[in-house]
Design goal:
Elements: H1 11-52, H2 54-57, H3 59-82, H4 84-107, H5 117-148
Helix pairs in contact: 1-3, 1-4, 1-5, 4-5
Amino acid sequence: MNDDALKPPDAVTLFLQYKEMYKARADSYMKKQTTTTVVIVVFSAINTGIIALSQVLGTFGVITATAISAGVAIATSLQSSFKYKDLWVRYREAQWKLTVEKMKFDLATGEYGAAEDEKRQRLFGERIIHIVDEERKGWREGFEEDSES
């Protein structure tokens, strides 16, 4: 068996893994937020025109307006239930905190300034774990707030 497979990742590798994970999740929720917002805005505007022309369009206009209203309601419900914007912001914040910590590490500022290389690596790893843990605690707190309401 390869001993490297059991070796824990170094701090920089850990940083890169979490930064990419948070970026992918933030991008995914940003796309979901943007898509549902576009659906809500565009179809609400289209629906207004269809309702205004309902006298001319007759039953087809009523059915179309009803279907569009249902689509808008579903998109609004998705945004409200899954909180795409909140998740997008949460993951972007975690990604930014990791980036700032990496800049401090690279520039040897703050706690990293006086530390030897091995201690700097360990400290950087601890800070990454702390940032990830903060983000996960936010999930638990958000879940508890949602279940109380």
